[in-house]
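Example (one chain per record):
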Amino acid sequence: MMQGRGDPGQGVDLSNCAVEPIHIPGRIQPHGALVALSPRDLAVRHVSLNVGAVLGSGPEDLLGRSLLDFIAPAAGGDLESILRSPAPGALNPLKVSPRKQGATAWLDAIAHRAGELLIVELEPQGAPGDVSFSSVYRVIHAAIERIQSAAGLFDACEATAEEIKRLTGYDRVMIYRFDRAWNGEVIAEAREPDIEPYLGLRYPASDIPPQARELYLRSWLRIIPDVDYRPSDIVPPPDEPIDLSFSVLRSVSPMHIQYLKNMGVGASMSVSLIREGVLWGLIACHHRTARPLSFEIRQGCELCGRFLSIQLTAKEKLEDGGQKQALKALTDEIVATVSRREDLRVGLAESAGALMELADAPGVAVLHGEAATPLGAAPGPEELRRLHAWLRRTVADQPVFHAESLSRVEPDFARIKDVASGVLCLSIPEPDPWYVVWFRPEVIQTVSWGGNPEKPVESSAEGAVLGPRRSFALWKQVVEQTAVAWKPAEIEAVELLRRALIELDLTRQVVRERSARAAAERSNAELEQFGYIVAHDLKEPLRGIGSFATFVMEDDGAALSAESQGYMRRIGDLAVSTMKLLSSLYEYSRIGNVDFSFGEVDLSEVLADVERRLAGSLLQRGAEIRAPRRLPRVVCDRIRIAEVLANLISNGIKYNASPAPWVEVGFDETSIPTVFHVKDNGVGIPADERHRLFTMFERLSTAAQYGEGTGSGLAITQRIIERHKGRIWADSPPTGGTAFYFTLAEAPLTDP
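Predicted structure:
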């Protein structure tokens, strides 16, 4: 970096400008003195070398001693309590005077906390009352009145520049606004007649590097009363640099000093303009000679800057309000048209005029799948396909993408600059996203810069110097392959349209799902009713067939041939098995229709009842029911849950080749909801057949050798669990055995 007058011989290294630690320079401007205190005892830990010119006592006298030994409040008061308070800056400036005779008569003490230190800056002033806030109140009040009553943003900025020039007496006051790339533009200016105008000029982002913008965001005001100052070092050098972000005396970057000198500036001040937490711009004040300002005037300028910052959003809304209202009406019109068409592409095509008006674009395209629908002045089919592929790769499902110069983002698109230099795109996320893209053609523009933005450093006999800011002459740049920039209101309108289209799509999906669910529920209800009727009405005929077959065998069996006797016995067996199937069907259909009786039930008691019911089967097979611990109380239908346990335990005993069959019933209370299990050491379930476990009338390949069954028990079990708003599933390891798991925790107290 180029150093100030105190460090001659250093050259400019612009590449380091963006990383220069400007908040910890280790030195101050000498129009005041700085002392860094220990907040606990107010002892001086560090001090600027020029302190003797302000207090009459040098660093060697102050270091280690309390600052109160050297200053006293101007009109009495408890200065010690103020300095020890958590926020001493709330009472700035503190009017004090040196205790040593012959020193500066009156001082402004400006205090703030910086980490573990208390920073006190001492600026010489006139006698108390010579300059007070009340003496500048009228000017500040007039300024605020003008800003507030301004018709729009630019009027408010112009009023601010004029009023701050009147308050400070500076030769030039500019309102400087940043764009998205942090280039700056002078949008308002108040100046002396004999000064070259800067209004409308732009300045590159490199003029104000990122760390400087960050500092402007943290501290509202910076001042340099004299660019020819010799910086004063802080001694002794601290182990950790002192953060001077909020210091009014902080020494500024030598690069910035050279910049100001190249402009012919002798003094400068800047006030931040912050919109919704983001640095929006600056109030930049320049004077051709040195010009100090009192704390009160500086505070007045800061107040104006804060007030304009608050007004920025309001003034922009005032200017954009009518446009936004019109764009909202267009959005509603587009959505209304699209809502009348099932196909989004058809609805958007019918809204072509409103779409183009929404973003003030002569062309639009709707891209989805393999289809590209151009509307108005849009690229040709092949170029649209290329653009669609690029959007899929680059933009993907980014909600809104916009560019004023598409060819800068992707040089291959320079070929379509006549229709699509600028693009504004919204995406609607689906498995294959939709894109609606607005196009603007190239508009060749002339941009006025304060010097060549592409040539920040020049070489001369003196070495490297800041070339473009040596003269600040007007430099015009012709900008090609660029469209008229998209306005924030237009981008916002497209974002609003995107949200509305997504909401419309979601609403349609919900309606379709509800319709499908209602149809499925009607179909299921009809099937259940049909099953109930079939099962109920066929029982009696089947019972009669079985009975008549028995009567024939009893009365005339001896007269029948052996073959006929076999047929009759087969008829009886088929009637019995069909009756069982119908009973299962009847029970399955009833579960969906009958009311369940929910209440608090002790599952251990239910298990005991089931064990008594299955006592014969358990004894015959030599089987055992295990319950490692007492089961909990749950909300369920006692009779139906007993059926579940009986069915699962019976299967575990029935499909079991072990000489000592067992079934275990337990639970895991750590899961939410509680998971119950019924495990056995049986034959297990083939992995490729588990998907059929709960299907009505499905029998597994291993079932045949273990007796007849209808294949309905697990389907009925699942139906019962689902009526309890739970779920059931199974696992069967390769080593054998089966574990059924189910939940009941979400069962209601009353049947829904």
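Caption: The radius of gyration is 44 Å.
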